[in-house]
Amino acid sequence: MVAEPRKLLIPLKNSTDDAERLKSTRRFAIDVWNVTRRWNELAIEAASQMEKFTSGRMRVHHTQGVLPSDDPSSSSTDYLSPDERDRIMVGVVKAHDSLTEILEHLDRQIGKLRTAQSRLAPMKKLCEPSTLLSPSPLSSPSTSTPSTPTSSARTPPLSSLSSPISSPSSSLLDKRGSPRAYYIVSEMERILPPLIVCFEKELAAKKVILKEVGSHAHRGLSNAAIVSFQHEPFVEESLLNELYALIEVIEMNVHELPDGDDILSILKDESAKLHVWITAAVEYYKQKRYEVFTMILEKSGGEATLDYYGFEKDQVRALDTLAAYYVKKGHRERGSKDKRKELYTKATLLYTTADKIIMYDLNHLLGRALFCLLEGNKIDQADQQFTFVLQGSSEQGNIPALLGKACIAFQKKDYTQALFFYKKALRTKPDCPADVRVGLGHCFVKLNKLDYARRAFERALQLDPFNVAALCAISIMDSNLMTEEGVKNGVRNLYRAYKLEPENPIVLNHLANHFFYKGELTKVDQLAWAAFQNADTENIRAESCFHLARSLHRIGNYDKAFRYYYQSTQFASPSFILPFYGLGQMYIQRKEYANAMTCFEKILDPHPNNTETLKILGSLYAQAGGDAKKGVDYRAKARTHLQKYVELIPDDAEVLIELAQLTESTDPIKSMQYYEKVCDLLAKEEMDVPPEIINNMGSLSLAQGDYEKARDYYQKAMDILASESGDDIEAFRVTIMYNQARAAELLCLFDTAEALYKDVLRKDGHYIDSFLRLGCIARDRGQIYESSVWFKECMGVNQSSSDSWTLIGMLHMNKQEWQPAQKKFEHILKMQPNKEDTYSMIALGNIWLETLFNPNRNKEKDKSHQDRALQWFTKALKCQPKNMWAANGIGCVLAVKKQTQEAREIFSQVREATAEFLDVWINIAHVYMEQGQYVAAVQMYLNAMKKFGKEKDPQLLLYLARAYHRTGKIVECRETLEKATLADPENLVIKFNHALTLQRQATMTMKDEKATYQVVDGAIQDLKTAQRIFEYIMSLREEARASGISFTFTETQCKACADLLRQAQIYLERARAQDAEEQALKARQEEERMQIKRRQEEEEREKMESRQRQVEDLKQTRQLYIQMTKDILKLPEVKDEDRKSRGGGGRGRKSKGGGGDEFMNDSSDLGDWEKGEGGEGGEKRERKKKEGGSRKRRERDRGGAGSGSDEGGGEKKRKKKKREPSPKLSAKQNAKIKSRAFISDDDSSGDDKGAVGDERATQLRSDSPPTASAFNDSSSSPTDSEEEEKMERKKKNGKGGKSTGRRVKMDSDQSGSGSDSDRGRKQKSASENEGSDDEPAPTRRVRMSTSEESD
C-alpha cells in the first residue's frame, strides 16, 4: 500500500430533504472512513520504523564481520566506535518496540471495523423507505456523537463505534424512510466484510515478517520486508475507493492548502461546524502559516455552525488555542515591551471570554495557569489554578498540573516541594519523558544531593541518549569536580550536546565559557554571539552578552565591553551578578566612581560576604570625594566594608593599612592596632616596615598623649630614612622632623622644640607651620612682641594664610585691643578662600559682645553693638548650621537684651546637642541668676564644676559665691571665696568680695544678742581682716579701677569696718556678761542633776540589798525543806498481823497489783506524799487503794470487754493532764485544812511537822518561785461544783453503808510507782474528800471500791 499524504476533509452542506437521518448515516460513514485513514497512518509509521529497524540491525551485524552465506559479495568496510554502536542498538530496540505497538493499534482498528459491521443491520432496517418509526422520548442526540473526518494521526475513535446504536429520537428522524441513507448503509454492508478480511490478512503478514526479520539478519529479507510494509499488498484500493465514494466531503491535501480567503469561503459556504474550523486552523499552524491560523480562529466565533451537541467545549477550545498562540508569541517578543503587553492583553481577553462559557474546564484552567506562570507576576494565581486542576482531576494526577506546580515551587526556591511534585508525576506516569527526570536532578542539585542528581541525569540519558539538557547538567557537574578527568568528561559531554543540537544556546554559552579559560577568544565570540541569536529567554541572552563583554574586556576593547556588560545587566535576573562586577570595573576605568559603587552594591545585596567586592567597594568609598557630609558618610561606609573584609581575611596587609588610615580620626586606638598588625605581618614575611607607617604610628601616639612613645617612633622613622636619598625622601624627612618638634613641645622641651622648628625652616623656608609654632611658643612665654614677629614672618611667606592672621587677631583680643582684632578678622573674611570662615565670624561676634561689658562704653550704642554681634553669630550659624559656638553666642546676645527665656531655650538646645561644652552650662546658670532662680543657679554651677573638673577655677568659684550670696548662704559664700582666693591670690575682685562677705557676716554676728564671746571675738577678727583687704585694694587704685572696683565704695566699706571695730568693746562686754550668766545657770543645773543622780543611786543600792536578802532567805528555806523531807521519806513498817486481820478480797487485789507489800522508792514517791499530814500513812494507803481500785474498774468499764488487755498485761495509755497551779482557798477552807493536821485515825499518828512539810513540798512543786504567801497555803481547794459533788457522794455513801467499815488493803505498787498523771488524779481524788467536816480526807489516800459499791 502506497503511503498517501494527509488530507483535510470538510463535509458538504446538508440538503433540506431528510436532513437529520442522512446526517446520522453520513456521520457513521465518516467514522468508518476515519478508521481506514487511521490504518493508513499507522501503516506508514510502521513502514518507517521497519526501515529503521532493518537498516540499523544490518549495519551493526555487518560491522561485526558476520556476513550472510548467500551474499558473498557483501563486505564490512565501516568501523563503528563502541558509543556509536550502542547508540544504533538503542535505536534498533526502540524501532522494534514501536513496531510492536503499531501492530497492536492496527489490531484495534480491525476491532472497530467489526463493531461498525455489527451496527449495519439495525441501521439498514431503520433506513428502509417503508419503515415507520415510533418516537422514543428517552433517547438523546448525545448517544451517538460522531466526529468529523480527519486525517490526524492522533484522532481518537468515537464512542459510536464501540457501543450499539441507540434508538433515535422523534426529533431526529421523520416518519419517512431515506433512500440515500438506505443506499449508503447497503453499500457499506457490502464493502465492510471484504475490507475487514483484507486488513486481517495484512496484519497477519506484518506480524510474520517482523518475526522473520527479527530472527534472520538477511539483507534480501530485510529489503522485502520494507517493500511489503510500504505497499501493503493485501489491502484492495478498490474497496477503499468505493467506501470513500459514499462520503460527501471536500478533501484537501494538507501540503496544498488554499489561501486564507479561499479556506474561509469554503468553511462558510459549507456551514462547517466549529470543530472543523479548529481542525483547519491547526493544520495551518503546523505549516507555520500563523496569519491564516489566527484569521480562521478569529472568524470562527461568528461564522462557524454551533447547532450540535457539545459546541460549548469547542468554543472554549477555539478561544484557548488562539490565546495560547498569543501567549507564546508574546513570550518570544524581545524587541518591544508594548507589543508584548498588547499580545498578553489579547490572550487575557480570550481567556476571560472562555471563563464565561465553561470556567472550570480543566484544559482551559491549565492553559490559563501556564499563562500566569509565564507572566511572572501571577505565580500565586497560577499555583491556585494548578491546585484546582489537581483536585478536579479524576485520574491519579494531572501530569501538566503536577509539572506546573513543580516549576512554581522551583521558582520560589522551595526545592523540597518541587522535588515532591516531580516524584509524584513520575509515580503517576513512570514512562514520562526524560525531561521530567532532568527537573528532578536540578532539584537534587539545589538541595546539595549531588549523588542523587547525577543518578537522575544519568537515568534521563538512559531513557533518551540525545537529551541535551541532561548532557549539559552532567557536564557542569563533572567540571565542578575541579579535577583533570572531570574537566575532560565535562568537555566531552558538551561536545556531544553540541553535535546533537548545534544551536542550543545553553550548550553554546558553556562552550564559550570553556574556551574563555583556554584563552581562545575568537571561539568565545563566535559561540557567545550564536547563543545570543538563538536564545529565547532573557537570562540566556544575559549570559551570552556577559561572555562577549569579558572577551572584549580581556583584549582591551573597553567601549564595546562596557556596552555588552550594560546590556547583560539589562537582561540579567537579580541573581546573576557577574555582569555587574564587570560593569563596575568599566565605570572605574571611566572614573565614574559613583556608578561603580552602585554596581558593586548590587553585588553585595545577594552576596554580602564576597571579599573581592568588599575590598573594591571599601577602596572606592575611601577615595570618594564630595561635600563634607557625603565625605563623612562615604568614609563610614568604607570602614564598614573594610572591617567586614578583615573579619573574613585578617591577613591582608594592604587592606589593614587602608583601614588604619580611615580610623585615624575616629578611633585612634583601633588604628594603632591595625598598624601594629601590619608590622607583625611584614615581620613574618621578613619585610621592612615602611617609614610612612612608623610615622603614622607616631602621630597616633601623639594624639593619644603618649609623647615619649611618639618620639621613639619618629626617631625610628628617621633612622630608616638615614640610608636613603632623594627629593621625596628629603621632604619626608622634614615632615618627620616637624613631628619630632611637636612631640618635644608637648613634653615641655621648648628649647629642643624651638631648635627643631628652626632646623625645619633652614631646610624648608616655606614650612608655615614652623613659623606658627614658634610664634605660639613665644606667646606662651609671654613674649607677645616676638610672637607677633613670627606670625608676621609667616604672612611674609604666605599672605593668604588665614592661620597667621587668626593668631595675630587672638593676640589683640587677649590684650583687649578690640579694634585691631576686629580689623584682622575682617581681613580674613575678605580673602577669597575664607569668605565663609565661621571662626572669624564668631570672633567678630565676640568682639562686639565684649564691648557691651566695657564700663567706659557709650551706652547709647549698646543696641547697635548687640545687633552687630547677633548678625555675625547668625551668619556663622547659616554657614555652619551645627556650630554650637555660634548658637551659644546668639543666646548670650539675647541674655544681654534681657530676653532670658529665649536665651535659656537656645542654651538648652545647645546642651542637648552636645553636653561637653562648658560655656553653655555656665550661661544657663547665669540665666537662672537673672531670673532670680538662685538655688537652680547654685546647682547648675556645682554640676558644671563637677562635670568638667573645674572645682578650683577662680572664675567659677566667684560665680558660685555670688549665687550663694544671693540665696543668703553667707557661710557657704565665705568658704567659696576662700577657695577662690587660694586658687588666684592676686585677683582683686575675689579679694574685694571676700572682704565684703567678711564684713557683712561680722556685722550680722555682732548684732546678734545671743552671740557668745568667742563668736563675737571671731567676728572682730574678720572685721580686721576685711579692713586690711579694703586698705590693700585702696592702695592699688589703678588696678582696682581696671578690675571694675569702685574706690569710693571700697573706702566707705573700710570706714564701716573701722566704726564697727570702735564699737567692738561694747559687743564684747555684752557677750562676756551673757557667757557668765550662762555659765552660772549651767553650774546650777549641773548641781541639781548630780543630786538627782545620787538619790537614784542610793535607791538602786537599797533595792539591790533587799533582793539579796530575799535570795538568802530563799536559800535558807530550801535547806530547811530538804532537811524536813528526809524524815517524810522514811515510811513506817506495816505489821503482818494487821494485814492478816484484814481479809476479804485482798488476795485477788494483791495478785492483780502484782506487787504485794513491796515499796518502790523512786522519784515519784515524793509526789505521793506531798500533801500528807502524818508521818505514817496507813489510812492514806487504804484510801488510795480503794480509790485506785474504783478508778481501774471505771477504766475497764469504759474500755469494754474487747480491749484486749488481761492481768499482767501492758499498761494502758493515758492522757496526761496538765498540772495547774493551786488556786487560793477561802478563809473557811483554810480553817479546815489547818485542822486537818491534827486529825488521824486509829492506825496512824503524826506530829506537827507533817502539815508544814506538805505545804513546803507543794510550794516547791509549783511553777512560780516561792513567796512568803505561798508558804501559808497547804493545798489546793476544790471549786463549788466539786464541793456539791462531794456532798452528794457523802449522802450516797451514807445510804449504802459506810465504806470505812469495810476492809481495805493498800496497794503499795499503785501508790509507790505511779506516774505524774496518776499522781494528779490522786490529788484530785484527795481534794474531793476534803469537803466533809465529819470525816478526815488525807490528800494521798487511795480508796478502793468494794464489790458492793461496784454493784
Automatic annotation (TrEMBL):
GO terms for biological process: regulation of DNA-templated transcription; transcription elongation by RNA polymerase II. Residues 63-83, 129-175, 1092-1112, 1132-1351 are annotated as: Disordered. One of its GO terms (cellular component) is Cdc73/Paf1 complex. Residues 1289-1303 have a biased composition (Basic residues). SMART domains: TPR. Residues 1132-1141, 1168-1190, 1246-1258 have a biased composition (Basic and acidic residues). GO terms for molecular function: RNA polymerase II complex binding. Residues 68-80, 129-172, 1266-1279 have a biased composition (Low complexity). InterPro entries: Ctr9 (IPR031101), TPR-like_helical_dom_sf (IPR011990), TPR_rpt (IPR019734). It comes from the Eukaryota. PROSITE patterns: TPR, TPR_REGION. PANTHER family: RNA POLYMERASE-ASSOCIATED PROTEIN CTR9, RNA POLYMERASE-ASSOCIATED PROTEIN CTR9 HOMOLOG. This is Ctr-9. It comes from Pristionchus pacificus (Parasitic nematode worm).
